[in-house]
Specification:
The structure is a single chain. The chain is mainly beta. It has a single domain, classed as predicted glycosyltransferase like domains (Thrombin, subunit H), CATH 2.40.10. Helices cover 10% and strands 44% of the residues. It has a six-stranded antiparallel beta barrel. A hairpin with a 3-residue loop joins strand 3 and strand 4. The longest helix has 12 residues.
Length: 118
Amino acid sequence: MNDERRSAPRKPTAVPIEVTDSISGENIGRVGNLSRTGLMLICHRPLRDGALYQLRFRLPSPRGVNEEIEAGVHTMWTDQAATNGYQWSGLRIISIGAAAAACLDRWLEAGAVGTGSV
């Protein structure tokens, strides 16, 4: 039986993708996995359950042109990570521009492990 409740499967990343809070400019962590509709962050600081954030990150590309993605997200869940001082947060993408969405789609279709073409 498949327990997957997400509307789109998440893809892991092979290289660190650092994530910045667009409002504060603070690096809040890195992407653990990513889909068209959400992501899991490995955070340096706790995010609030149910909170809204505006985040930025760059998707790696083998061509060396890393496209920046900016998206509005909603925190769906949080949990302590196995490593002290870190937290996992599941986020649903609630707002993303057309160009960023197309870039994300291409990256996911290309394999999504950090070497896809953007």
